[in-house]
Amino acid sequence: MATIYRINKGVNKPIEFRGLKGQYIGYLAGGLVGLLLLFAAMYLMGTSMYVCLTVIVLLGSALFIAVNRLSHRFGQHGLMKYFAAKQMPAYLKFRSRRLFTTLKTTKR
């Protein structure tokens, strides 16, 4: 029985899939690809199938929970704004006024 998932995209609205907005869909997809590669590597190394499945299910659950929390906490662009704000300096220190006194104004 096939299940059809709808991706809701209205005019001027972000892509939303099951509560995930914008870039979080990509983060989840990248994490799932990483889990697939981890499973393949563990299986090829000869790890027991039960250990492989247990590790992948636990990490997959943690991935879903983490991405969902990020999506609900920050929204569509909030995570980028959060990291941008962390890169801003707390204050600027100038030892002279030369920077401001040598500014030239342009007339338009």
From TrEMBL:
The lineage of its organism: Bacteria, Pseudomonadati, Bacteroidota, Sphingobacteriia, Sphingobacteriales. It comes from the Bacteria. It comes from Parapedobacter koreensis. The chain crosses the membrane at residues 24-42, 48-67. The keyword Transmembrane helix applies. Pfam families: DUF4133. This is DUF4133 domain-containing protein. Keywords: Membrane, Transmembrane, Transmembrane helix.
